Request: fold
Amino acid sequence: MNSKKEYQYIGKSEYNVNATAKATGRAKYCSDMQLPGMLYAKVKRSPYPHARIVSIDISQAEQLPGVKAVIVGDENTCPARFGAGVADEYVLARNKVRYVGDAVAAVAAESEQIAQEAVDLIEVEYEELPAVFDGEEAFKRNPPAVLHEDLKRYQTLRSVPPQFDENRPNVFNYFRIRRNNAEDGFKAADFVFENRFETAMIHHVQMESHCGVAMVDDSGRLTVWGTSSKPYGMHRDISESRGLPSSAVRIIIPAHVGGGFGGREPKAEQIAASLALAQKGYPKRPVKMKFTREEHLSTTTTRAHYIVDIKTGVNKDGTIVANKMRLLLVGGAYAGTGYLTARNAAFGPAANYRIENFSLDAYGVYTNQRMAGAYRGFGNAESLWGMESQMDIIAETLNMDPLEFRLKNCIDEDDLNAFEEVMHSVGGKACLRAAAEAIEWGKKTEAAKPHLKRGKGIALGNKYSIAPTASAAIVKVHPDGLVELRTSTVDLGQGSSTIFCQMIAEEFKIPVSKVRVLNPDTDITPFDLGTASSRSTFNMGNAIRKACLDAKHQLFELAAKELEANKDDLETADSKVFVKGSPDRNLEIKDLFIPMVIGGYTLKEGAEIIGKATYYLPGVIPDPETGASEKPASFYMFVAQAAEVEVDTQTGKIRIVKIATANDCGKAINPMQVEGQQEGGVLSMGIGSTLMEEVITDNGVMLNPQLADYKIPTTLDCPDLANYKSAIIETAHRDGPWGAKGIGEGTMVCSAPAIANAIYDAIGIRFHDIPITPEKVLKALKEKNS
Amino acid sequence: METLGLTINGEAVEVLIDPATTLQQFLHDNLGMTGTKEGCGAGLCGCCTVMVDGMAVKSCLVLALQVRGKSVQTIEGLAPEEILDPVQQAFIENGAIQCGYCSAGMIMSSKAYLQENPHPSESQVRHALSGNLCRCTGYHKIVKAVLSAGEK
Reply:
């Protein structure tokens, strides 16, 4: 694919197709839904981190006027467990609770107030059990608490199976890589470095909280609206956890969802669905479950506290010869997406550099906290936090420039990564150079006052995209020439609908305004793995291209008869079909349809012009012992970030003077939207996770479950317009649509080390854990000076 | 139930409401003006920002009865027909909208501030919007949009 070629719509900064609806307040989100007769739900949650449920008394709650349904975790409501890879969870806890906030009962009532009153009337008797919060304690062979005694008997996913650890009862996934021999590498190396790095538990803080609305229709069928990023994952969870056949459930995601970033497990939707089904008799009224901001911050998925141990061997000339890591995802009470995060955090370190000898052990471990799992970067911001801090420690010892050291080892086209996969479409070096240049790497700048210290730092990152994977698309050509896309990709704000419209516009040579995207609806829109792993542009993009070809093929077959031409000689543009080279021989798409008496249009055959296609990428599951795989991922996005910081040695406050990101996305289908992803990744989540954000808990209770205490960056925490720079690097991928890969998750996987390396350059203090708060800086300065 | 009379987007409204209803709930739930989003219900995110007598107000912190007799403008009132307000137009053209959940509040805060200070500096815009949270954009294109609207 030649990315230099000029396209009409690809590579253009078209305005977001949903922007007008959103700017005018007309856009409806799940949270805005109101249905006739709708009931409101509230959840009774566990106050204990680990306890046996002795009894639950719902009699008073049931008698409260206005209460329509009360449910608990029993055989009827929760017949089966569900989970992304390990089926370890019931919709409502059965037998025991495993974290503070675990749902034990739920109520549907005429109003939120009544539902809350009823929840308060539910009496639960618990018998407390020992709890474990510390990751290393939980990881032990004899941990102080075992969360799932029956783990080995739970159902697991066949396509990407988790591996348990025979000796460690709380480990829900154990993944390893063994390339050549790391120990031999260390023996031969001139220097060996060994360090531990950690990241705090943080939250996505999507602006729209989790919400679900569920309704049982007159045939007894269940429809659930929600805010999930994976309609088909939600479909599986909801049908399987109730033992319902899949055709008995319909999932609809509204066209607008208020942010995702990985944390959209359909918890609220599950509760709403259970309550819709549980009502006695008919009519069964629709039920809405919207989590309060506090519930959202304190009970939904987090990015895990991560412990990264890294040992690296290098030669004097700066060649990395061996690297060994242990990655510990300190998970929650249920594995959720964390089962895969625990494994896939390995991918970033495996593909950043050329390293002959590579050994890695990645674990996910249960603790008595809420679920920890997917978060923009899927474990790789955490593992690369360790690796990219380590690289600066090494460069300093070798007396090498951190940029030069990275350029020397950076993986390249045709190199083997730690899976022994041959790399393709690698923009790492170009990203490094662009990010360095953007902050005038190597040039010292002075702060205005002596107590302000300045420094610069750089880091390299990459983010794989998942395999095996599949996306399907349906494209319908309407009689008036409008082309409609049926896709289950969720537009959570990242702009997928806009780029899909551009892709179809390009294929049909029609303006973007003549394309529309239907919102995900499992009755209408076909399968997609989910809006995750920065996979939509690549996977759904490929499916859309193929579906367009199919639709055009049908269109040309119909038109060939009318135009008395060979279908292979036909082309389409501006809602017309014409003979290539003789544009005068043409017809309008609408002329293929016959207007009928009474109304409507028909084709003479074939019912409708509907193109459909699946893009299926099987990949190769890594060898369970060595991790070896020819194709463990769909593609890799590369990124480099560079920062200049100013540390106030009197207050400990860190100011970002300049920050730059360079991202290799293959091909920017819409450059303005790529920039938007870069800005959000670096300025909101990158800076936030590095300097500010932390879920603080005490005995499993979140102490900062409000936005006043869980701080995310505001306009004042981000650098001025002139001090933020971004570059788009286009290293085309041979399998990508128009050469495109993805962007979303690649944008914050190396923000933390870039900033921390700059802090080290400024004050000579190496921080091993994030966030790097003013308190930590002051404490470290005090220790250094004493 | 209490009687409440006020003006919403230029139209006189008189209703009976539960006195505990916040202005955000009144607009969003009772009147179906769903542009005024609930983000936190505690005045911390700014998603529900509306204008009361021209001033930006977080509508979740105000009881509906407190705006009796006042003039409330919501996002829906900014472009009653198809012609958009310059601030809305600037948000669209600058790519300042991603998930859009904060957008209405962000635009109302921007609009209120630009009425007060039509040609602000970047620093003034950042201060004016510091009470409105956005998780998608890092505010970069939002600040750009407000500055460009201010230039017009």
Summary: Chain B touches chain A through 57 residues (CB under 8 Å). DSSP finds six helices and five strands in chain B. The longest strand of chain B covers residues 2-8.
